[in-house]
TrEMBL record:
SMART domains noted in UniProt: AAA, REC
Coiled coil: none
Keyword presence, Iron: no
Domain Sigma-54 factor interaction: 141-372
Organism this protein belongs to: Melittangium boletus DSM 14713
Name used for this protein in its record: Sigma-54-dependent Fis family transcriptional regulator
Gene Ontology terms: biological process: phosphorelay signal transduction system; regulation of DNA-templated transcription
Alphabetically ordered keywords of this record: ATP-binding, DNA-binding, Nucleotide-binding, Phosphoprotein, Transcription, Transcription regulation
Amino acid sequence: MSPPLLFVDDDRAFSSLGAAALQREGYAVTLARSLHEARAALARLTPALVVLDRRLPDGDGLTFLSELKSHVPGAGVVMVTAHGDIASAVDAVRAGAADYVAKPVELADLVLRVRRALDTGRLKDRLAAAEAELSGRRRLIPPASAAMQRVLAALERIAASPRSAVLLLGETGAGKEMLARHLHALSFQNEDTPFVHVNCAALPEQTVESELFGHEKGAFTDARTTRRGLVEVAHGGTLFLDEVGELPLGLQAKLLTFLDSGRFRRLGGTTEHSSSARIVAATNRDLPALMARGEFREDLWFRLGVFRIDIPPLRERHEDILPLAEGILADLRRELGRKDAMLGARARARLATYPFPGNVRELRNIIERALVMESGPELELDVLQGGKPMPSLAAAVPDMDPESFVLAGPPRALEDVERLYTRWVLERLGGRRMEAAKVLGLSYPTFLKRLGEGS
Ligand SMILES: Nc1ncnc2c1ncn2[C@@H]1O[C@H](COP(=O)(O)OP(=O)(O)OP(=O)(O)O)[C@@H](O)[C@H]1O
Ligand SMILES: [Mg+2]
């Protein structure tokens, strides 16, 4: 937990006082009195931060800075400069120092700047890792199915109105977050535009409210300072409200007000603030069912539903399975160093009939697992053999025999038969719609359409 620091300074009084002050803050400090000693220390340890004097007995700290940066690129540097030497402070920051302190140094000031430089470094690391993850690995593989192509075409149109809210509906792993990020990239060309992800299910109500809308100092016991909410952080970009079905009712009202006016108040605050963030909400819950139970506001459903995107489950778009599998394999091959791996004929056949209850995420996991577990160049995707098949009609509802569905009279349009059969299944299941959709292997919106209720 104690980040290692290297303190390079030949002024004995200052370096021992400074080191002691930093040690009291919990940092593990190593002292070096010259560049020579600093190089020797770097051979042994990788500091998170270096406090570096400019004038050292065997050279200039500034020249050493570039050597240091190439040796330990992640280390932050706080430069110590002579009193009044602003030019050298500017040079240090240009050469990559995070900050500088001028002699005579106030110890409290030194501690503060060290802490701040470390925090900035950590933040940068986290952002870099997140960006690499997203841009490198998680590219959107172009869909082959007409249904998904329609979804992408809709997103392209929506991108042109970057203030409108969007609701993404789809089963787990179907690609809601992927599409939210895709819409963001289509809407805003500037890469610095914020995309802020909030998981509404992960936090208790008061925390969600202060995360989303911020709080004023003293709004609750732990609110020692005023904090901006993520709605403000996402200003000019996208606020992705994941699992919006879990948003507590009180906050649903506040979100509705924000959607209507772009305005909101921080927790404990009276001043109105505004943000131009676009809300993209997503859920795999059955929102109409939540509405029927009074757990989701109908007006919010309508407000969010102006641009509603239904992402079909993977089993309803067979044409996407192989292109996705090939694309994911190509990405993972590079990452896992299995350049020769490819899908064998049996693997393809297995993929074609597997129902993918976990959708694209499951497909990704299957391929990742095969790359690790199977050593041959031709992947078999053995896991799919033992994989759990979709619940068949009879297995899911033992007392329901599909044979007992009888149609009398003259031949009818297939569409009518589908509707009648859908209703029959629904009836047998005591009107439990989500369950009926599942048994029929349909997404909820498709189920509603078959029932003759969908849009
Ligand atoms: N078109 C696509 N191209 C490449 N990868 C995809 C595509 N669609 C989905 N994926 C991958 O599938 C996985 C699941 O996608 P995502 O996280 O977007 O699903 P989700 O709908 O948000 O799921 P959940 O409801 O569980 O949060 C991710 O690893 C994502 O990268
Ligand atoms: Mg998700």
